């Protein structure tokens, strides 16, 4: 794997180029980029042909080791790796330890190994077992086995135990990685951990750069231990994570290697992480929004500046700056639409709909006869072909097509969001994008509590 | 002397009669036999409907609530489905006929541009609802939502079906559980079904673009079936359905009833045997002269991890498939078989929704491929051989069920020993 930084924006964020992936030697992926999250090797609810209606045939996938540790034998027999096994050959694969969409039970990791929860029950994975699995999965890149258990409120002792174990696993993985023929073309990423302690995180990063770790084997970093996966990650706001991520990324950590994170980060937190110089993200957010039958509607298109030349009226004018006329299709719509969220918390309304300010919930009865698409101006398959009324009908009828159509829309929206992030960074306007989303989606008095001082130091 | 017209020439009347008996035309349906089996009653035809020209015999997958189990319309088309079935009871309840009226029908709502058929809602109500009571007026029942007393009349059923806008609508019929023993109940039902047919015909607002099929009743009693046949045929409909079967009755009674109905139903109109979907049953009924079928079986069994193959089905949950890297069926051209292995399916079956979609797609494709084989063999006049080969492959050691042997023998097809 090769990663080159193309541009560092003074407005926050950086643009990179990822190439040299063993399964796609000719592919060039621009970062910040998003991986397609998977369950059991497939995009959630989407068969291969349907997935290809939404993403490119070489879109990189995120596959948790957790989903395949019960199947190491068959992968070894198959010999062609997990992407091919899942009928997604041509897509590159990144393997992480845990499934970011499911909360990892805390307290089950110890010296013997890391606990992975599969359909068959709990498996305790040692570094040896993990590397056997990596050889069978044949990822383009993967993270080293780690104990990132400490979430919120972990004791100093727990953090110390986790960093000690994880350093041990890392060294074992490096040794095995270097000795492995089958992993010659795969890239190894080291975890950045330390729970929520800035001191522990900074200390860990320092130890990664010390002589005790063979840095030549490390091609990138995964930021872990900020959470323990699952839907609760959505509640973490930029202010909750900014300082601890900075602590991991700041000097002496090598700045030229790619940084990756996974989890149900909400769009504003994603932007903050991109601001801090994170390069690779996953699609847990659109997936879990689909699971609660939400359709993403948050705006992300910045209109061109006047002095850039041609002023382009975006295809979704209603998502522009709030000062422009707000159409009835914007997230903050009136009467006939559902009650807009009043704050950033996930709130259960009278109908017990879990939702967020970034989406509309398709269970909501206001959709029942709406002939318009989920999101006006959206070019995804669902919005080009179906109405909100139909998706609502499918949702309350508990039909399997509901999550299919919602996943297609949400994944498309998420991919477009990242295009916009890259565009914003290239034009030094990442903060404008943060402002756009904040002001469109929240009441102004809550903004302060969400966004910390965006002129603070970043770690690009 | 009057100019001789074509109709008065001796040879012409035979030709005219032949033309009449192999084709028919109604405002919303035209039917033409393309080829017939020289031994059995099987035939292959073309049925032109407002939304699609359908090749018969054909099988209709069931898309109960305006969707086919997690598949996109283009995937269903890719599996070669021509007509899909929607349930009036479910769709009439939710989203309801008003929405269909506003949206211009189910085709637009679900983005299906081929043909649709709706059942009347009667069968669902009797089988799904407690306290459903049949009166002369209609089917009386308690709403499952608020417990209030409701009535589904022939008029109401047609009104909902008109709003849905399917190419073919089914009459509301008085359907009796086939295992019922009381002859008088079946007699009442046979006569009432005709009275309800008349009410349905009167209520149909769109005869120019929506066909209404009568349903033949009479249980397993040949004399009642004959009465129903005579009455229903007299209404000169575009096509007819054989109802009241596939409800768990003995196969020995099932096939003679179908055979009797197809003997009497007009040759030049399509015949639809409701609720038939197992491969063996489809093949036998085609031999008996049936053209149209529907069944939930292929999509339902997919949900349990079962894939249809030439000699039945395989359950992909079984450990046998853990290391089986072949597709479900090497002969199948569906996208599931072109891309996915049994081993992969084994890892996700009953666990991830994707497995359900992949199996539903294959099972629908399987049914379509079976019907295509049937049509092709009739065109080449080797349907009898096709049936022999099919049954030999299906029943190992040639242990054919007696009913299959008898049914085929009745139409001059002898199975291999």
UniProtKB/TrEMBL annotation, chain B:
Heterodimer of a catalytic subunit and an accessory subunit. Its EC number is 2.4.2.64. Substrate binds at residues 119-123, 173, 217, 244. Its cofactor is Zn(2+). One of its GO terms (molecular function) is metal ion binding. Catalytic subunit of the queuine tRNA-ribosyltransferase (TGT) that catalyzes the base-exchange of a guanine (G) residue with queuine (Q) at position 34 (anticodon wobble position) in tRNAs with GU(N) anticodons (tRNA-Asp, -Asn, -His and -Tyr), resulting in the hypermodified nucleoside queuosine (7-(((4,5-cis-dihydroxy-2-cyclopenten-1-yl)amino)methyl)-7-deazaguanosine). Catalysis occurs through a double-displacement mechanism. The nucleophile active site attacks the C1' of nucleotide 34 to detach the guanine base from the RNA, forming a covalent enzyme-RNA intermediate. It is found in: Cytoplasm. GO terms for biological process: tRNA modification. This is Queuine tRNA-ribosyltransferase catalytic subunit 1. Transmembrane segments: none annotated. HAMAP family: Q_tRNA_Tgt. The active site is at 119 (proton acceptor), 294 (nucleophile). GO terms for cellular component: cytosol. InterPro entries: TGT, TGT-like_sf, tRNA_ribo_trans-like. Residues 40-395 form the tRNA-guanine(15) transglycosylase-like domain. Residues 275-281, 299-303 are annotated as: RNA binding. It catalyses: guanosine(34) in tRNA + queuine = queuosine(34) in tRNA + guanine. Zn(2+) binds at residues 332, 334, 337, 362. Keywords: Cytoplasm, Glycosyltransferase, Metal-binding, Transferase, tRNA processing, Zinc. Its main location: cytoplasm. It is an enzyme of class 2 (transferase). It comes from Cherax quadricarinatus (Australian red claw crayfish).
């Amino acid at each position: 794997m090769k990663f080159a930084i193309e541009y560092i924006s003074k407005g926050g964020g950086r643009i990179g180029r990822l190439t040299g992936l063993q399964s796609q030697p000719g592919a060039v992926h621009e970062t910040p980029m998003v991986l397609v999250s998977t369950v059991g090797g497939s995009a959630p609810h989407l068969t291969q042909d349907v997935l290809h209606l939404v993403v490119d045939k070489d879109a990189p996938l995120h596959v948790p080791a957790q989903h395949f540790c019960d199947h190491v034998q068959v992968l070894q027999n198959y010999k062609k790796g997990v992407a091919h096994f899942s009928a997604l050959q041509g897509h590159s694969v990144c393997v992480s330890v845990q499934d970011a969409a499911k909360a990892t039970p805390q307290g089950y990791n110890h010296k013997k190994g890391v606990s992975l929860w599969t359909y068959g029950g709990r498996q305790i994975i040692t570094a040896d077992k993990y590397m056997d699995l990596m050889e069978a999965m044949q990822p383009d890149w993967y993270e080293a086995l780690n104990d990132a258990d400490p979430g919120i409120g972990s004791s100093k002792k727990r953090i110390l135990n986790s960093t000690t174990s994880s350093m041990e696993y890392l060294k074992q993985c490096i040794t095995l990685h270097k000795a492995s023929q089958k992993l010659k073309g795969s890239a190894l990423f080291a975890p950045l951990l330390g729970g929520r302690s800035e001191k522990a995180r900074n200390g860990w990063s320092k130890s990664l750069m010390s002589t005790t770790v063979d840095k030549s084997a490390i091609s990138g970093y995964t930021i872990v231990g900020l959470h323990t996966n699952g839907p609760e990650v959505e509640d973490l706001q930029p202010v909750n994570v900014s300082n601890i991520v900075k602590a991991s990324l700041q000097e002496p950590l090598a700045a030229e290697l790619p940084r990756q994170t996974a989890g149900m980060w909400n769009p504003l937190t994603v932007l903050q992480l991109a601001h801090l110089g994170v390069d690779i993200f996953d699609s847990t957010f659109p997936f879990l929004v689909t699971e609660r039958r939400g359709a993403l509607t948050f705006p992300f298109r910045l209109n061109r500046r006047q002095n850039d030349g041609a002023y382009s009226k975006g295809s979704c004018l209603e998502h522009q700056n709030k000062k422009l006329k707000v159409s009835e299709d914007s997230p903050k719509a009136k009467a006939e639409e559902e009650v807009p969220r009043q704050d950033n918390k996930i709130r259960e309304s009278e109908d017990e709909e879990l939702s967020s300010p970034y989406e509309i919930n398709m269970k909501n009865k206001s959709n029942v006869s709406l002939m318009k698409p989920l999101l006006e101006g959206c070019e995804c398959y669902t919005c080009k072909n179906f109405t909100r009324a139909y998706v609502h009908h499918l949702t309350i009828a508990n039909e399997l097509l509901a999550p299919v159509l919602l996943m297609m829309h949400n994944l498309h929206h998420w991919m477009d969001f990242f295009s916009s992030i890259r565009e914003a960074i290239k034009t030094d306007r990442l903060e404008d994008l943060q402002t756009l989303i904040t002001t469109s989606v929240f009441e102004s008095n809550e903004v302060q509590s969400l966004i910390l001082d965006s002129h603070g130091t970043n770690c690009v | 002397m009057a100019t001789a017209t074509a109709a008065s020439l001796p040879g012409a009347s035979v030709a005219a009669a032949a033309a009449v008996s192999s084709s028919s035309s109604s405002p919303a349906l035209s039917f033409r036999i393309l080829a017939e089996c020289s031994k059995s009653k099987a035939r292959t035809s073309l049925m032109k409907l407002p939304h699609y020209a359908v090749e018969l015999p054909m099988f209709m997958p069931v898309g109960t609530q305006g969707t086919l189990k997690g598949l996109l319309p283009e995937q269903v088309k890719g599996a070669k489905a021509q007509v899909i079935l929607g349930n009036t009871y479910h769709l009439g309840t939710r989203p309801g006929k008003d929405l269909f009226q506003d949206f211009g029908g189910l085709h637009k709502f679900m983005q299906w541009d081929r043909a649709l058929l709706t059942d009347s809602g009667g069968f669902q109500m009797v089988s799904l609802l407690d306290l459903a009571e049949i009166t002369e007026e209609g089917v009386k029942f308690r709403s499952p939502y608020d417990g209030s007393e409701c009535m589904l009349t022939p008029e109401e059923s047609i009104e909902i079906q008109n709003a849905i806008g399917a190419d073919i609508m089914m009459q509301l019929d008085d359907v009796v559980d086939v295992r019922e023993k009381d002859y008088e109940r079946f007699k009442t039902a046979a006569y009432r079904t005709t009275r309800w047919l008349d009410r349905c015909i009167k209520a149909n607002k769109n005869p120019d673009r929506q066909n209404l099929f009568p349903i033949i009743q009479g249980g397993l009693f040949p004399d009642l079936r004959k009465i129903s046949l005579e009455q229903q045929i007299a209404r000169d409909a575009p096509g007819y359905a054989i109802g009241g079967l596939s409800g768990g009755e003995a196969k020995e009674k099932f096939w003679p009833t179908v055979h009797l109905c197809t003997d009497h139903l007009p040759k030049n109109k399509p015949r639809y045997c409701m609720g038939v979907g197992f491969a063996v049953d489809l093949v036998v009924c085609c031999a008996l002269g049936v053209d149209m079928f529907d069944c939930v079986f292929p999509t339902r069994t997919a949900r349990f991890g079962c894939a249809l193959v030439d000699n039945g089905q395989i359950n992909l949950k079984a450990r046998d498939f853990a290391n089986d890297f072949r597709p479900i069926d090497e002969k199948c051209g569906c996208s599931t078989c072109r891309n996915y292995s049994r081993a992969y399916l084994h890892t996700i079956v009953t666990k991830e929704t994707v497995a359900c979609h992949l199996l539903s797609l294959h099972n629908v494709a399987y049914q379509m491929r079976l019907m295509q084989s049937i049509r092709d063999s009739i065109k080449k006049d080797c349907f009898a051989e096709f049936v022999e080969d099919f049954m030999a492959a299906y029943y190992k050691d040639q242990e054919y069920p007696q009913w299959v042997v008898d049914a085929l023998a009745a139409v001059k097809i002898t199975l291999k020993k």
